[in-house]
Amino acid sequence: MAPVAVVLGVMGAGKTTIGAAVAEALGVPFADTDAIIEERAGKPIPEIFVDDGEAAFRALEREVVASSLRDFGGVLALGGGAILDDGTRKLLADHTVIYLSVELTDAIKRVGLGAGRPLLAINPRATLKYLLEQRRPLYLEVATHTITTDGREPEEIATEVVALLQSA
Ligand SMILES: Nc1ncnc2c1ncn2[C@@H]1O[C@H](COP(=O)(O)OP(=O)(O)OP(=O)(O)O)[C@@H](O)[C@H]1O
Ligand SMILES: O=C(O)C1=C[C@@H](O)[C@@H](O)[C@H](O)C1
Ligand SMILES: [Mg+2]
After folding, report:
1. Pocket of ligand 1, beta carbon within 6 A
2. Sign of dihedral through CA atoms 97, 17, 39, 53?
3. pLDDT digits over 25-40, tens only?
């Protein structure tokens, strides 16, 4: 079994919002690797970063992505930084991967002050600008489809994603 689609994008791209709406429209389950990681680790992501460090988080994330790609048959949202890991990017080959793109202005409006997002704890605007520039080429490397989300309502974006999955 493999996911119907994998959803990627930076924090605030709308992975959880759009992924869940697409799954509902298709009548399949939705899962978010961040939630699976928290369940496996038995603690919230900010605590994993503090206690174990980002490298340990990325290794756990790679394991969770691998098992989800193997066993989960719905719409799967990945954490915003999952594509930083070479092994995780390789795992995505041959899957349908939807990259939700967002520019800084809309991303900042959506994440606010970055509560619950450890990488945005200090200077969220400058950090998010850096993350967008650093990650865009990596999202594009693994994406099979890129959907622009700036200035668009979640319902409209979800409808576009459902249509492209149904035409595939
Ligand atoms: N297209 C959109 N237009 C306006 N607001 C949006 C849009 N998509 C998502 N949002 C809002 O932005 C916030 C972040 O969305 P969401 O949690 O889905 O992003 P995410 O990509 O899953 O982020 P994270 O990587 O932190 O999990 C939520 O409050 C959501 O309602
Ligand atoms: O952009 C990132 O690097 C992250 C995004 C979140 O989804 C979480 O996976 C975690 O907070 C790291
Ligand atoms: Mg999310």
Report:
1. 9, 11-17, 80, 110, 117, 149, 152-154, 157
2. positive
3. 999 999 999 999 999 9
pTM score over 0.90: yes
Closest protein CA for atom 9 of ligand 2: 79
Q: In terms of CATH, what superfamily is 5-158? A: P-loop containing nucleotide triphosphate hydrolases (3.40.50.300)
- Whether 34 lines ligand 2, by a CB cut-off of 6 Å, is yes
Domain ranges of the chain: 5-158
> Across the chain, which distance is largest between two alpha carbons, in Å?
45
DSSP-based three-state secondary structure for 31? strand
Q: Respond yes or no on whether ipTM tops 0.85.
A: yes
Nearest CA residue ID for atom 26, ligand 1: 11
Tokens for 69, please give them. Answer: 């790609």
